[in-house]
Amino acid sequence: AAAGTAEAATTLGFLDLPRAFSFGNKGFQSVEMEVGNLIRSFAEKAMEESLLEEIKLTLEAEMREWNVSPHPRKKKPITFKEYLSLPKEMRPPVTITVCYNMGWQKHSSGNKYDSISGHAFMVGARCRNILACLVCSKLCAICEGAKRLNKEPAAHKCVKNYEGSSKGMEAHTALELVENAKYHRGFIVGCIVANNDSSMKAL
Fold it and tell me: Can you give the pTM of this predicted structure?
């Protein structure tokens, strides 16, 4: 369940910590931001490790296939050890298979899609770990609050990154993750496994 300032103050009170119940919005937001940055940093590191594991498993599978049936017109695949020995910018992009799905903050009824945010995950088909993720948001609470007061928003990291329909988020994030994989992560998505009802088929 979601927890905010009141729940945090109650928990701190149970722990008999000083000034627990004076823990206001400002203090909560400061701690939330610091913890959030640590969680994101840990998640990014974990996804990089998972990507290397997926590449390792893919290259090993390619080598097994080559040893069974070498193709005279195809170049022999490199080993994972050879891959790691190359400078990062010189490593050849590895084509991998991924599973993709998206969830929304608010469940749709089948006829109505109006969630303000959604979260997409790309999972390695071989290692079964998350390789990439993206959160789509149609709203920023800080920007909206300032707009209602007819003021300029305070300096913040705006989370709004999407303008289209909630249903269209799935296709939008799939394309963005695939492009990011190719141009910034060093791998190519060769095949995507997704649900039958995925709106990604629109691509």
Answer: 0.81
